[in-house]
Specification:
The protein is mostly helical and 178 residues long. The protein contains eight helices and two strands; from the N terminus they run H-H-H-H-H-H-H-E-E-H. It is 49% helix and 3% strand. Strand 1 and strand 2 form a beta hairpin. The longest helix is centred in the C-terminal third of the chain and has 14 residues. The protein is elongated.
């Protein structure tokens, strides 16, 4: 006999949107396993196996960000800009993907540690392959992930909660990097 697996979603409207988007992108109706994965992702889990493992481990079923389901398609598209080692290989043309990439770069900076321009550039150079730490620095300041003194001498990572897609991408790239 099969054990029942409880399923819940914090926001039925977001669940419906995600289901609609994923199913409409398919050429044929989803099979049983594919539908289980779509449902699990729509509720904020990585896939059905992750949902089941969480349940089997006796953990409380809660989505990673209860009010904000993850747009897995956006995460997958943006993950293509990172190489097998989790380094940013090229700069996306879409602003939404650039922002997610900047969150990954932000996550790799030390907290509560003032850095001068050379130090932050060196850290960013170590995390990307296209050789332009200045664009990363400027854009991170522009979207308020970094603060910078008026003279540009000192940078500091701003502590903020990343959006759900950024958290998913940070986890994905961290798993690749190490």
């Amino acid at each position: 006999m099969r054990d029942p697996l409880p399923f819940s979603a914090p926001d039925i409207s977001a669940l419906a949107r995600t289901l609609s988007r994923e199913i409409s992108a398919l050429d044929t109706p989803p099979g049983h396993v594919q539908m289980l994965n779509i449902l699990a992702r729509a509720a904020g889990h990585r896939n059905y196996q992750a949902l089941k493992a969480q349940h089997d481990a006796g953990q409380r079923l809660a989505t990673p960000a209860a009010a904000d389901p993850v747009d897995n398609r956006m995460v997958e598209r943006t993950a293509r800009y990172f190489n097998a080692d989790g380094k940013l290989a090229s700069w996306p043309s879409k602003v939404s993907q650039q922002r997610l990439c900047l969150w990954v770069m932000w996550s790799r900076l030390p907290t509560e540690t003032p850095l001068n321009e050379r130090q932050i550039s060196e850290r960013l150079k170590a995390e990307h392959l296209f050789g332009d730490p200045a664009i990363l620095r400027r854009d991170m300041v522009g979207i308020d992930l970094l603060s910078r003194t008026d003279d540009g001498a000192v940078y500091l990572r701003k502590e903020r909660r990343p959006p759900p897609e950024a958290l998913a991408l940070i986890r994905w790239t961290s798993a690749r990097a190490g």
